[in-house]
Please model this.
Amino acid sequence: VFKDYVTGVVEESDMEVVTTDTVQLKVPEGSTAVLLRNLYLSCDPHMRAQMTKNDRRGAMHNFLPGSVISGFGVGKVLDSGHPDFKTGEYVWGVTGWEEYSLIRAPETLFKIKHTDVPLSYYTGILGMPGLTAFVGFHEICSPKKGEYVFVSAASGAVGQLVGQFAKLMGCYVVGSAGSDEKVNILKNKFGFDEAFNYKKEPDLNAALERFFPEGIDIYYENVGGSMLDAVLLNMREHSRIAVCGMVSQYNLERSEGVHNLIFLVTKRIEMKGFNVIDHFHRHSQFVETIIPHIKDRKIAYMEDKAQGLDSAPAALVGLFAGRNVGKQLVVVADE
Ligand code: NDP
Model:
């Protein structure tokens, strides 16, 4: 349960685990609701914006103090009054951070067709973050073979996939991450050409000059702040920046200023933001494209699974300290 609006850094104590009486495990007579047994819950950086009162930076509705937190997840249909969902089917989409959820408006639930892959993947590679990486890279970045690509927050849910999509396109790819362990994973598991620990670099501009002596063609922006400033200095003429998110800013009351935007003009850089919500209608097509890559082991994927609802607040807060190694999710129940 979300306790109250947050200012500054979100903490575990901003949420609490509450036990209530057993709910009736049936949808109300005559309703079109869907009753879910939640299996996996997704921890996503945008949830921090939903905790700020009247945050104009967030793209989703605010959480209400005292109400159950909502977010993306995977569940099994226990009962349904909706013609599109049947008992026993698996779905992904927006659900509650609770064991059972009654979804009264199932427009944001999507049926899972392929169940021969781990269902937890629908919180990540086959769900919202996967589609984000795919659309953001292939469409917003307009990549070409051989181009120089930089990805920040590269070992996370979105970043690990962007880097691999770029490698599959034949690009040179460098990622930044916040620990040596993550740097090692980027190079040896996800196949990035190079990676660096931004926390150990006293001068981000110098680090980028080292890895991109000829400049950057594509920057996949996940963090914002000082990284964006350093990147702007290193972009090539007619390069592209896909603004996916700015996780370094989400716990700040006011976003930091960016100093080097003038390079958008002088280097003719195209910088474009996007929201995956606008692309959900393409999810089925996306899954059909990605599943063969997973089965043929052309794409590697890493999850960080917290066990049980009690661990959910710590798992969510951990995103902002970089404690997650790979896609952070919470296991609520066995499949
Ligand atoms: P991640 O799995 O990458 O988790 C967040 C990571 O961000 C942490 O692991 C940490 O990694 C890094 N981080 C946290 N705080 C900072 C900081 N102050 N400075 C630099 N890095 C930091 O999250 P996702 O892959 O789910 O999301 C990545 C980005 O994509 C976010 O900005 C998110 O908001 C955005 N997003 C946008 C969508 C859209 O539609 N536009 C949809 C989904 C996500 P490290 O150890 O490397 O610091």
